[in-house]
């Protein structure tokens, strides 16, 4: 949480005062975001066979997925959609594809717009322990997005999924160019992390009590 707030404060201090669907490989080369520092997502998108969603469709799906997030809804107005289109990527991925690989270094997070994604922890024996199943509105990989650490779990699509992609470079740009919207996005990420930690603490407490 502290890293999240520090990143946002740093971005604010530097802020100035003042498509058709197709294969990801083709669209990525044509998108202006390609001028950013390379992200691990570019290679992962090719591996999983991601197809680009029309950005207007992606933003509409994002706002629907977060329609119950009162903070996002209050800050993100229709006139802000163009900014979201600039800083986020929207793709669809077939079932059975590994969006996030455990133990890899990560610099992107995914917001599930539709479909179901399995979150598994791969054991030393190779067995997979199911930690959760992410659905519409859930965020995957946000911890590595913020601290550049290794991925804790593997995320595999269980159905055809649509996701919004935010890379670290795009997040930094977002915080500088659109601080109000970046704050809404990062506050939503922080709240979801907090909820996840509370749930984990409750489970650990129950296990310790039972033991």
What class do helices, strands and sheet pairing give? alpha+beta
The main pleated sheet reads as: 5 strands, antiparallel
Mean pLDDT: 80
Strand order of the largest sheet: 1-2-9-4-7
Regions with pLDDT < 50 over 5+ consecutive residues?
15-22, 28-34
Number of helices: 9
**Share of residues in strands:** 15-25%
Number of strands: 9
Instruction: Give the overall form.
Output: globular
Distance between the termini: 30 Å
Query: Helix-strand pattern, N to C?
Result: HHHEHHHEEEEEEHEEHH
Tell me the radius of gyration. Answer: 17 Å
**What's the helical proportion of residues?**
40-55%
Task: Give an overview of the whole structure.
- By secondary structure, the protein is an alpha+beta fold.
- The protein is 47% helix and 20% strand.
- It is built from nine helices and nine strands.
- The chain has a five-stranded antiparallel sheet, sandwiched between helices.
- Strand 5 (117-122) and strand 6 form a beta hairpin.
- Helix 1 (2-13) runs antiparallel to helix 9 (179-210) and helix 8 (168-177) crosses helix 9 (179-210).
- The longest helix is centred in the C-terminal third of the chain and has 32 residues, at 179-210.
- The protein starts with a helix and ends with a helix.
